[in-house]
Amino acid sequence: MWRYADLLPVDGEPTDGTHTGFTPLVRAKNLADALGIKELYIKDDTVCHPTFSFKDRVVAVALSKAKEFGFDTVSCASTGNLANAVAAHAAIAKLNCFIFIPADLEVGKVVASLVYGPTVVRITGNYDDVNRLCSEIGGIYPWAFVNINIRPFYAEGSKTLCFELIEQLGWKAPAHIVAPAAGGSLVTKIGKALKEFHILGLIDKPNTKIHPVRPNTIAKSLAIGNPADGIYAVDTVRNSGGVGEHATDIEIVDAIKLIASTEGIFTETAGGVTLAVAKKLIENGHIGPDEPTVLAITGNGLKTVEALENKTDISHIIAPQLNAFRKLMTEVD
Amino acid sequence: MWRYADLLPVDGEPTDGTHTGFTPLVRAKNLADALGIKELYIKDDTVCHPTFSFKDRVVAVALSKAKEFGFDTVSCASTGNLANAVAAHAAIAKLNCFIFIPADLEVGKVVASLVYGPTVVRITGNYDDVNRLCSEIGGIYPWAFVNINIRPFYAEGSKTLCFELIEQLGWKAPAHIVAPAAGGSLVTKIGKALKEFHILGLIDKPNTKIHPVRPNTIAKSLAIGNPADGIYAVDTVRNSGGVGEHATDIEIVDAIKLIASTEGIFTETAGGVTLAVAKKLIENGHIGPDEPTVLAITGNGLKTVEALENKTDISHIIAPQLNAFRKLMTEVD
């Protein structure tokens, strides 16, 4: 992602996130067929990041900046992905690290923070409670809270997702980008990235509609009541002509299975929301069948297996004997 | 990985694994310091693969070949990672897919196969039982079992891990490669890759010692009693002057935490074994402090969180109040 360093708020050489970014843009032919659209792409941020979500992008900028400012301790309020990223990048950078998360997070995401060795503090409350507490702590302890007191730098990292997909499309903006909105900063920065590339003359004036997606559901990483960049996200979406949509739990799980069974990509619940909503936007005509569309799939399904556990188990159990398998085959037919 | 197509057994254009391979070779400075060695690298196959393990390499070759042969159904016996890879790649290629696994596998690995939509058959037995049953089934059903009847093609995919790390080292072979040995094919093919690059004049005669690692423990992906390529692996190791080692459960968990807390890389249990053994080889002088060494970290920790669940939980739970946090800080100090 640091190929775009000139457009990111770091002075001098970036010191974090060497192996972050430039994730694949997958031409999703099977999925496009299933949805009845001609040109569909997945910006696959489930892979090629150290902690398998787009949060590695924002943390790469935040920690480079925190070190420039001379902080020795980094911290964050998180629903999981950000915690994983901050903990991992802090370990590499040898910074002290405090992670604040809601107490009820998915086990995979908690273990995937603890393993890097930070101090993890679980808060008996929702994400908004965690966030408020961190603001208070930030007033007392001289720490870099990546998504609070150094948020303006952090958020700029999101632009790289959009920079990359434009480069990968041959320096063209798509007609639609569907992206998850939790705090709202990704959606806001996609808008900013489009604008910057246009100002620099790298692309024509973009006519891209940005569609934010939100659930209130099993997708814990999006369940934020008081989004930090909410107002800017709304502006960005409105100015682009995009529309917001939501998805139910059943639609989310179905979408996770659809993207896996057509494109071999295992997304976390947030990506399920993104696809479920894209499907609706295609069905109701907001996305036309001839309009190039990019889905931002921002996190990895291995972190939220709980969401699928009782919804995919159609496996069969048999003894290790050929006759048992023959019998199963006659039953399955 | 298809940059090395000329050295892989496919005719014509490969049709699978477009987004597989060329994983990072990380210069592991923090970890090297911790181990008392100068030049240590991690070949990080936990990232940049569709299903986050080196099995995507072998499956990319196997499925390209299966399609060349005209198979419409692919299958495998697996301890998890291979199942994930076959299921995902089969979905992309629109092939029918049967997955055979031991019934007691980690939940994450089972869900991470089911999500792609294959038929999953869980066998009440160990991996050797599963493997034997698959050989029998392969005698009756006209399916491509990637690690059985088309194994010779499949196994060649492992060479790409070694090709890549040599290219990434500037076309030089390291003094040591430490790699996990389950069926033994990775270790065998590392030896073959070194030889091929030498024959082609791409590197000097390699003087690389290959060290296989094996546990009999929580690392289920390595717990194979009757390794298919065992004899060849032994030959490869012996000819290179390498030594085999094993690790205990506690050593594995400690090593998983060490690599995470120094390099921000979250490995599955097999990678824990690799590091634990490397540590011993350094301590007992088999790996000298000045000898460039590569650790093959072949799978992702998110698939085996169970192994860590009660061993990393040093998190604290507090109410969302500043006073609660102040109190915690005095207790932690």
List keywords for this structure.
six-stranded mixed sheet, four-stranded parallel sheet, 2 domains, homodimer, Rossmann fold, 333 residues, 14% strand, alpha/beta, globular
Provide structural commentary:
The structure is a homodimer of 333-residue chains. With 333 residues, the first copy, chain A, is an alpha/beta fold. Chain A has 2 domains: 2-53 and 155-307, Rossmann fold (3-Layer(aba) Sandwich); 55-154, 3-Layer(aba) Sandwich (Rossmann fold), CATH 3.40.50. Helix content of chain A is 41%, strand content 14%. Chain A has 12 helices and 11 strands. Chain A has helices spanning 29-35, 55-69, 81-93, 107-114, 127-138, 151-156, 159-168, 185-199, 230-240, 249-263, 269-283, 322-332; strands at 25-27, 40-44, 73-77, 96-102, 119-123, 144-145, 176-180, 209-214, 245-246, 293-297, 316-318. The first copy, chain A, has a 6-stranded mixed beta sheet, sandwiched between helices. The first copy, chain A, has a 4-stranded parallel beta sheet with strand order 5-4-3-6, sandwiched between helices. In chain A, strand 7 (176-180), helix 8 and strand 8 (209-214) form a beta-alpha-beta unit. In chain A, helix 1 crosses helix 10 (249-263), helix 2 crosses helix 3 (81-93) and helix 10 crosses helix 11 (269-283). The first copy, chain A, starts with 24 loop residues before the first strand and ends with a helix. The relative contact order of chain A is 0.15. The model of chain A has no long low-confidence stretch (mean pLDDT 90). Chains A and B meet through helix 3, helix 4, strand 5, helix 5 and helix 10 of A and helix 3, helix 4, strand 5, helix 5 and helix 10 of B. Chains A, B: The modification N6-(pyridoxal phosphate)lysine is found at residue 55. Chains A, B: This is L-serine deaminase. Chains A, B: Belongs to the threonine synthase family. Chains A, B: Keywords: Lyase, Pyridoxal phosphate. Chains A, B: Pfam families: PALP.
